[in-house]
């Protein structure tokens, strides 16, 4: 643990953690557990007041002379906590594409024009790309994930040999989520972060597929697969 090494050299440290269970096991000197999802460690985007409060709470832990100290950021101070995939409603509402019975692949295709509109409006800047697979071939990613859940041993040519398949699966999910979120921001420009996040997990076929993937990986006999599963449906 880097923080512990710094402390041994006389430097006082503090930090933020998204997965409280990890901090409980590692026992860092001082850590603030926050209830936000990956990519939003300081909370809601474009909310500097909240972000400053979160940072101040982390800095306040420096008043503790000895650790380990693990505190939770009080949820009553948070305007809207992002739900996790496992907490999402099971019944679809409005996915903004077609009927609730649409397949993940067809749903993705229906959102492509919105994603490309978003990307074009940002001069090509996008969070999509960690897999190296062009977004027009994302239907192949969907098939890859569906086959993986089915117990097959699929692969994709874009996967580097030094990246294990479970980790590549995680990259695939990250790309799909980025695609969906950016498409939704073009589709509903006035939607809040919470609205977009809830829409993905509660109202889309892709959200259901990712939740099924997370469940499959959590129950997999390989511990390395279980480890990756924790962050899939967040």
Keywords:
mainly alpha; 2 domains; three-stranded parallel β-sheet; 3 strands; 4% strand; globular
Task: List the SSEs and their pairings.
Elements: H1 2-8, E1 16-17, H2 20-26, E2 30-33, H3 48-60, E3 69-72, H4 104-121, H5 138-149, H6 165-187, H7 193-203, H8 205-218, H9 223-229
Parallel strand pairs: 1-2, 2-3
Helix pairs in contact: 4-5, 4-6, 5-8, 7-8, 8-9
Task: Summarize the structure in words.
This protein is mostly helical. The chain has helices spanning 2-8, 20-26, 48-60, 104-121, 138-149, 165-187, 193-203, 205-218, 223-229, and strands spanning 16-17, 30-33, 69-72. It has two domains: 2-77, no CATH class; 85-229, no CATH class. The chain contains nine helices and three strands. A three-stranded parallel β-sheet has the order 1-2-3. Helix 3 links the parallel strand 2 and strand 3. Helix 5 packs parallel to helix 8. The longest helix is centred in the C-terminal third of the chain and has 23 residues, at 165-187. The radius of gyration is 19 Å and the shape is globular.
Any idea what the radius of gyration is? 19 Å
How many angstroms separate the termini? 24 Å
Number of domains as seen in the coordinates:
2
What is the arithmetic mean of pLDDT? Answer: 85
| Count of individual beta strands | 3
Which percent band covers the strand fraction? under 5%
Helix fraction bin = 40-55%
Strands of the widest sheet, in order across it, are 1-2-3
Q: State the helix count.
A: 9
Main sheet: strands, sense, barrel: 3 strands, parallel
Unreliable spans: 89-99
Query: So what's the overall shape?
Result: globular
Order of helices and strands: HEHEHEHHHHHH
Helix/strand structural class:
mainly alpha
């Amino acid at each position: 643990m880097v923080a512990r090494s710094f402390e041994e050299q006389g430097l006082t440290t503090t930090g933020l953690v998204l997965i409280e269970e990890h901090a409980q096991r590692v026992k860092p000197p001082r850590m603030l557990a926050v209830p936000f999802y990956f990519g939003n460690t300081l909370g809601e985007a474009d909310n500097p007041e909240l972000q400053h409060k979160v940072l101040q709470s982390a800095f306040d832990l420096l008043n503790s002379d000895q650790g380990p100290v693990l505190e939770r950021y009080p949820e009553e101070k948070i305007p809207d906590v992002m739900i996790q995939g496992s907490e999402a409603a099971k019944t679809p509402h409005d996915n903004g594409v077609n009927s609730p019975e649409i397949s993940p692949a067809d749903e993705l295709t229906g959102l492509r024009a919105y994603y490309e509109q978003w990307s074009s409006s940002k001069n090509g800047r996008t969070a999509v790309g960690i897999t190296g697979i062009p977004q027009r071939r994302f239907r192949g990613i969907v098939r890859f994930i569906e086959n993986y859940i089915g117990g097959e041993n699929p692969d994709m040519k874009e996967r580097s040999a030094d990246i294990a398949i479970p980790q590549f699966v995680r990259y695939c999910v990250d790309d799909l989520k980025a695609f969906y979120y950016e498409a939704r921001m073009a589709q509903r420009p006035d939607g809040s972060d919470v609205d977009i996040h809830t829409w993905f997990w509660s109202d889309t076929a892709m959200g259901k597929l990712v939740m099924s993937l997370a469940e499959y990986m959590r129950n997999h006999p390989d511990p390395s697969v279980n480890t990756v599963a924790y962050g899939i449906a967040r």
